[in-house]
Automatic annotation (TrEMBL):
GO molecular function, one term: hydrolase activity
Pfam families: Abhydrolase_1
Record lineage: Bacteria, Pseudomonadati, Bacteroidota, Flavobacteriia, Flavobacteriales
Ranges of residues in domain AB hydrolase-1: 55-294
Protein source organism: Chryseobacterium muglaense
Name used for this protein in its record: Alpha/beta hydrolase
Top-level division of the source organism's lineage: Bacteria
Keywords per UniProt: Hydrolase
Length: 311
């Protein structure tokens, strides 16, 4: 059974920045509920839900959860039945330190749709969440999908040593060592850019992005991440190559969103050009066009989502 968010958390929360169009406190997100379901292997997963209409399911990235989507939920709940899945070992869901691979998370997404009796939905993935959706399409097909939105995820993070620079750019690949990338992401250990060529953490900050500061501080207080259980998942995530799924199994209208600060922006344009009915939007640097663009610029992002899904 779903619980109202205030009942679930036992208190309200006031956001530090008052931004027109965004909630000033948690209770402003009317109808927000926290629900749960049990997967086919007996794991309890949570989701955030608000609104009515066509289901729109968000699949967050690695280490992210529904709390970070509080602004997006607030805006889009007036247009869609919005869900944000807290994947296993993420957010409010069970922490197991096992079953940490993308195919299991893709199956969890299928279990969510079945548990909630969702026959058709729009799916939106961010970062690793795109890979989870690609895995879902690979295993279960696209019969339950209306439209797709992908936010800034490289089709192949791992770069094979015999690839040309052109192959690397098209795949979005930026890591020659999964182990060094894991050390960078979890332990913040400096790494030679010849091994992991990304400056993503230069943009993982809330300075100058008040909407992101609101959602980030809310998430840190109410749903702090547990990274120890996510090391194996990150390794599995790094080693996948989804270009065959993108090229041959995506048959729904697709919007790809990235930014000029992204290290793999060219691969994002290529995804949109590869799928049968694809288009891309590239945020400028002045529009917070980095890996966290939807959290930093939720009003612009939500409007573009609404326009695309209502076409």
């Amino acid at each position: 059974m779903n619980k109202p968010a205030l009942e679930y958390f036992g208190r309200d929360h006031v956001f530090p920045h008052d931004i027109p169009g965004l909630p000033s406190k948690l209770s402003d997100v009317e109808g927000l509920e926290i629900g749960s379901f049990t997967t086919n292997d007996g794991v309890s997963l949570s989701y955030w839900k608000a609104g009515k209409g066509t289901p729109l399911v968000f699949v967050p990235g690695w280490s992210s959860n529904g709390a970070e989507y509080i602004n997006i939920i607030h805006i889009l709940k007036d247009h869609f039945e919005v869900y944000v899945l807290d994947q296993r070992n993420h957010g409010l869901s069970d922490k197991l330190q096992i079953e940490n691979h993308i195919s299991r998370l893709s199956s969890d997404l299928n279990d969510l749709l079945n548990a909630l009796k969702i026959e058709k939905a729009h799916l939106c993935g961010w970062s690793m969440g795109c890979s989870v959706i690609w895995g879902y399409i690979d295993i279960f097909g696209s019969d339950k999908i209306e439209k797709l939105i992908f936010i800034d995820e490289a089709p192949s993070i791992y770069c094979h040593s015999d690839w040309t620079q052109e192959e690397r750019t098209k795949a979005g690949a930026f890591a020659l060592s999964a182990e060094r990338m894991i050390a960078l992401y979890i332990e913040e250990t400096p790494v030679n850019r010849l091994l992991v060529d990304t400056d993503i953490f230069n943009f993982y900050n809330i300075k100058g992005a008040p909407a992101f500061e609101n959602s980030h501080l809310f998430a840190e207080e109410f749903v702090p991440p547990v990274l120890d259980s996510l090391k194996h998942l990150l390794f599995n995530h790094i080693m996948n190559d989804w270009r065959d799924v993108i090229a041959h199994k995506i048959n729904k209208p697709t919007l790809v969103i990235s930014g000029e600060h992204s290290n793999w922006v060219e691969s994002q344009r290529l995804i949109a050009e590869t799928v049968p009915d694809g288009r891309s939007i590239i945020y400028s640097k002045d529009e917070h066009g980095d890996h966290f663009l939807h959290l930093k610029n939720p009003l612009k992002f939500a409007e573009q989502v609404r326009t695309f899904l209502n076409e």
